[in-house]
Amino acid sequence: MTDRGFRALLGILVGLCAPVQAESCVLSPYHLGLTFPVSKVEARWACPLQAIIDGYTTVNKIGPIQVSLSQPVYLYLLARPPMAAALINRLDLGLHKSEERGPGRFWGDDGEGTSGILELVYQDRTNRIYYVEGVHASSILPHVTGKAVVFVRVSPVNDAQGDDSVDTTLVAYTKLDSRMLAGLVSLIRPWVGSTVGRKLAHGVHVVNRLGQEIREHPDRVLFEAMDSPSLPNEEVAFLKHALRERPPAGGATSTRPVAP
């Protein structure tokens, strides 16, 4: 082999062994009238999120829906889905289940045919961005899998009685995994869209009912949290502090628990 041929072969081998440069993916900050700080999302998430957003089956905007919780308590529960699910179950508000599967990664089941993995991509005091892989079963389609990107906006407000509450708005892009179903998107989009919208709204409304219980029946909430098997000590301590610092209905606000 000539020297030129050897160098050409070496170049080919180096090219085959070298890592492939990933195509740059850019996320838009604008989503159905809301702006999110996508520039702060870790680079590893850009392409997975963009694939769903650009190739979505449905996109839904839900809210704003008012939730009867102060912002610190609401953010605390958002960061701990297993705690929220346990309280919802113990207070007979739903059949939710949740387990932590790693930092910022949770498995959840709403008890009504939908389950999956929820992964936190970004958070601050106002915004949350989640990546979701889930499955839904119904009488229409027994097993539908898909992925979603969910943007959440949390805004502190006061309710009609002057109590601290939050408005929650969600924007969700959903993409079905099945090529066959994706090919029928024009036929099933209304069903998928209404199902996703209903699930999102129901989830926020259940959390609102939990907030109402915390506000109206604090002793019952604390009893259920401490009933065997008790919630983790840290979570019980936070609830005690939140309930102790809770202002009377329609009264002036007082010192709030510090959000995580």
List keywords for this structure.
about 260 residues, alpha+beta, Alpha-D-Glucose-1,6-Bisphosphate, Chain A, domain 4, seven-stranded antiparallel sheet, two-stranded antiparallel ribbon, 8 helices, 9 strands, globular, disordered C terminus
Overview of the molecule:
The protein has 260 residues and is an alpha+beta fold. The chain has a single domain, classed as Alpha-D-Glucose-1,6-Bisphosphate, Chain A, domain 4, CATH 3.30.530.20. It is 40% helix and 27% strand. It is built from eight helices and nine strands. The protein has helices at 3-17, 43-54, 71-78, 81-90, 179-183, 185-216, 218-226, 233-244, and strands spanning 30-31, 34-35, 58-67, 97-100, 105-109, 114-123, 127-136, 144-158, 164-176. The strands form two sheets. The chain has a seven-stranded antiparallel beta sheet, with helices on both faces. It has a two-stranded antiparallel ribbon with strand order 1-2. A hairpin with a 4-residue loop joins strand 5 (105-109) and strand 6. The longest helix has 32 residues, at 185-216.
